[in-house]
Design goal:
With about 180 residues, this protein is of the alpha+beta class. Strands 1, 3, 5, 6, 7, 9, 10 and 11 form an eight-stranded mixed beta sheet that branches. It has helices at about 5-15, 145-170, and strands at about 20, 30-35, 40-45, 45-55, 60-65, 70, 75, 80-90, 95-100, 110, 115-120. It has one domain (about 5-135): Sandwich (Immunoglobulin-like), CATH 2.60.40. It is globular. Helices cover about 20% and strands about 30% of the residues.
Length: about 180
């Protein structure tokens, strides 16, 4: 966003360049940029360097997230802190990156929108491979193992409740009998 105006905000949304402060305006700010200028939200290049400028998070942590997998956190050591990540586009498809800022551990307090990288424009929209390295708290963005287990658990819970409701509907009504005088 080049300016703080309605037009500037709409431009940022159209280009996929947004930041969400999850608990309020006092949360840290992070600005995610690329050494190769993106077209909208996609960097068309074999490689690039991402830079995340973080303010308001000194003493806390920032991390890159690659295709839904949280990379190791980095301690923010100054009020105007920059962390960089070299990235390479996959041979086929595109990869996505975002940045999270954490205050006193998970969950994140500030999250950027995704910045995508692809070798060519015709690779846009084709998911790249999921990175091998996983952390136990990896997000449930559909690309991390464990996501399917959560969905399966919800489906089984819903089926169990439905089955219980069907059984309860088949039970005969029992009307307490009271002796008549």
């Amino acid at each position: 966003m080049r300016e703080l105006s309605v037009a500037g905000v709409l431009e940022g949304i159209r280009n996929g360049r947004t930041v969400v402060k999850l608990q309020g305006p006092e949360d840290p700010m992070v600005d995610l940029t690329s050494s190769v200028a993106p077209t909208g939200d996609t960097v068309i290049s074999q490689s690039a360097r991402l830079s995340a400028r973080v303010t308001g998070a000194r003493g806390h942590q920032v991390r890159f997230v690659h295709n839904g997998v949280r990379l190791p956190p980095v301690e923010v050591t100054s009020e105007n802190f920059v962390v960089e990540q070299d990235i390479t586009a996959p041979e086929h498809g595109e990869d996505r990156f975002q940045v999270e800022v954490q205050i006193n551990g998970p969950p994140p307090r500030t999250v950027t929108s995704h910045l995508w990288i692809a070798r060519s424009a015709d690779m846009r929209g084709i998911p790249g491979p999921v990175p091998e390295v996983m952390e136990p708290e990896a997000c449930g963005c559909g690309s991390a193992p464990g996501w399917n287990v959560g969905v399966l658990a919800l489906v089984l819970l819903a089926l169990g409740r439905r089955r219980r409701a069907q059984i309860n509907c088949r039970k005969p009504l029992s009307v307490p009998s009271t002796p008549h005088p």
